[in-house]
């Protein structure tokens, strides 16, 4: 099996940091990973696939796994499928221009964090995967779930989506008074109350847009 060195991993990580340095709002993880092959030539091994994970190139697994160290070092934040660089991460990027030193320092801070954790707490969900070759990471599963949910929502018709919104409001504790039947509804699709009979306000009037084709008046 080809050996992925610390220096090589550090090169991957510095590429994503360079991309995110001037992106205060971060970028979707998939978009970041897609830029890596554009910035560095991948070996046959890096562009290949693990047998247990044939849907994403091996280098993506390597990067996702290595970024765990960056997150625990406080250099990077992952939230809802987006990656961000912290101020500490920006400072580290400039302080450690050598990719091997960059990754070594992140790893040192990760193990420092790990040692500070009570033994009974164990590792967080994302760290349960011991190596990228073992399959999907938690982050990838989360991204995949979001994509599947998006595909399902886009595939249903507007009235099914309207019912879905009504069910969501019910799950949130609201009481559905009325859901518009198919046809013209005068701009109101759902009326909901805070209580079963609408004694306590406010009354919620909902306009549901499955796919926005025209601006919604504010």
Summary tags:
three-stranded antiparallel sheet, 7 helices, 218 residues, 2 domains, elongated
Q: Quick recap of the structure?
A:
This protein has 7 helices and 6 strands, in the order αβααββααααβββ.
Set down the secondary structure blueprint.
Elements: H1 6-20, E1 27-28, H2 29-39, H3 58-72, E2 76-79, E3 82-85, H4 87-95, H5 99-116, H6 138-155, H7 158-171, E4 175-179, E5 190-193, E6 204-206
Helix pairs in contact: 1-2, 1-5, 3-5
Summarize the structure in words.
It is a single chain. About 45% of the residues lie in helices and about 10% in strands. The chain contains 7 helices and 6 strands, in the order H-E-H-H-E-E-H-H-H-H-E-E-E. The strands form 2 sheets. A 3-stranded antiparallel β-sheet has the order 1-3-2. The radius of gyration is 23 Å and the shape is elongated.
The structure class reads: mainly alpha
How many DSSP E strands?
A: 6
Number of helices: 7
- Mean pLDDT over the residues: 81
Alpha carbon gyration radius: 23 Å
Spatial order of the strands forming the largest sheet: 1-3-2
**In percent, how helical is the residue content?**
40-55%
* Domain module count: 2
Succession of helices and strands: HEHHEEHHHHEEE
Poorly predicted runs of 5 or more residues: 122-134
The outline comes out as elongated
Distance between the termini: 59 Å
Biggest β-sheet, characterized? 3 strands, antiparallel
Hey, roughly how much beta strand do the residues contain?
Answer: 5-15%
